Amino acid sequence: xxxxAVLAAHDLGISxxxxxxxxxxxxxxxxxxxxxxxGPNGSGKTTAVNLISGLYRPDRGEVxxxxxxxxxxxxxxxxxxxxxxxxxxxxxFHTLTVRENVELAAVYTRQEPSLVEKALEFTELASLxxxxxxxxxxxxxxxxxxxxxxxxxxxxLLVDELGAGLGPKELDQVAQKLLELAQSGIxxxxxxxxxxxxxxxxxxxxxxxxxxxxxxxxxAAAAEDPLVAEVFLGG
Amino acid sequence: xxxxPLDLGLIILIPVLFALAPFxxxxxxxxxxxxxxxxxxxxxxxxxxxxxxLPFGYVGFFGxxxxxxxxxxIFLHVPALIGVLLGGLTALVLGLVLSPLLRLSGAYFxxxxxxxxxxxxxxxxxxxxxxxxxxxxxxxLDKAYAPHLSYLTMAVIVGLVTxxxxxxxxxxxxxxxxxxxxxxxxxxxAGINVERQRMVAWIWSALFAGLTGAVFAWxxxxxxPDTVFDPSIAIFAIVFTLFxxxxxxxxxxxxxxxxxxxxxxxxxxxPQYFQLIYGVLIMALVLFLPEGIVSLLxxxxxxxx
Lengths: 235, 305
Fold this sequence. Notes:
The complex is a heterodimer.
Chain A: E1 7-16, E2 19-29, E3 34-38, H1 45-52, E4 60-65, E5 68-69, H2 75-81, E6 83-85, H3 98-108, H4 114-122, H5 138-150, E7 156-160, H6 168-183, E8 187-191, H7 195-201, E9 204-209, E10 212-218, H8 219-224, H9 226-233
Helix pairs in contact in A: 3-4, 3-5, 4-5, 6-7
Chain B: H1 6-20, H2 28-51, H3 59-75, H4 80-97, H5 106-124, H6 130-133, E1 139-140, H7 147-170, H8 172-182, H9 184-189, H10 194-220, E2 222-223, H11 225-228, H12 231-244, H13 250-267, H14 271-288, H15 294-299
Antiparallel strand pairs in B: 1-2
Helix pairs in contact in B: 1-7, 2-7, 2-10, 2-12, 2-13, 3-4, 3-5, 3-10, 4-10, 7-8, 7-10, 8-10, 12-13, 13-14
């Protein structure tokens, strides 16, 4: 692994029964870098994110954060070490207010209280800070999920289908936000179905199918790749 | 964390009122039982109101506290107040032993705690253990009997459990417990150690049931296993908490004052009507007011502690 990578996953694998959901995935991210993780439904993208973020313990392989081995650490430990994520289906704390949602993340990862306001302003939720999270619409809940992650001051952020269910205008806004985060030095792994959205963010993609990597490199080159075309278009 | 003077006022006022009440109302046993139910209702509030775990077998900790105290007084010859602390400790240890139950959720957790409390009951009441627990023949603490001191001790415990609930209501700890109840995965990603937080609430809850059972044993001084392991003790406390409103400080207090009040007005003279009213009330609550009567105040725009 190169010395400057902030996140390095090597040969990650996990099986559920006979199904090899993720079978030997490796990737590296430098600070400020954005990598797209694409593939058809059921190809193991979210499982890979769950392995890296500590929700599942991998059967094999290892994860390094800033050079230190963090494989198998509980998610709350990873969150305190600067690795965070958003969820495909946003999971805010419904009975708490928007501000309380973000505040808890800052408090329990021992961040400056000022990060709470910064995260709320960045995600444009400041005007909703007193509302109950359960009363937000899905787009707002996704932003709240992002704000919750940002309040932990992450070095690595795994973004799981933030674009799904957003309108074209919201997508452009979210893409701008993610680019800003990368410019601030956060490494982003972006799981995404919407390739046009991903194209705004990065040219570097990793394509998965049936738990394995079938392509890594340029997004435009991926479109030319016969195997990728077969997987996506059904050949 | 405490917002003086309102919070401190509440924490001090309740035990002081109970301590003075016998001077104006001479049924001290009724007042004592009200305190017992208030402490148990708040103990259930700690675990259910903040984490969503409903311990149907909560009485197990109450009984463990009663027996822990009694056996400490009988065999270790400790003063009653030390015995009460050891009773609380007994329930705390039982809470640690039963902590794997927290892996269950919903109805499974509720039923598993009920089974666990029954298991503890059958062990203690087993005639084969008569030399240790006095088995089914019950306990007599006649030498330690001190109705006034035990009454005042109970008032102090009510103050302590109220303080803990106020603290949860005001602190990030309480907020984190509610976050864990809403979504454990997001809680982990917020840096919250989900298992540890659940454990903290569970242990506090067990400790207060144990202390309450301990003082109860000391107060009545003669009792049998089925007195202190009666599942209806926990059911009553749960209903008081739900009726008033879980997750608030005032809810369980209102629940005990109103429902235990009704129980003592009509329940003793005409128990059949009481059971009818009680049953209808519980159904009405679940259907129309699942968050208890304090939710009426909230709807009226009043911020309830």
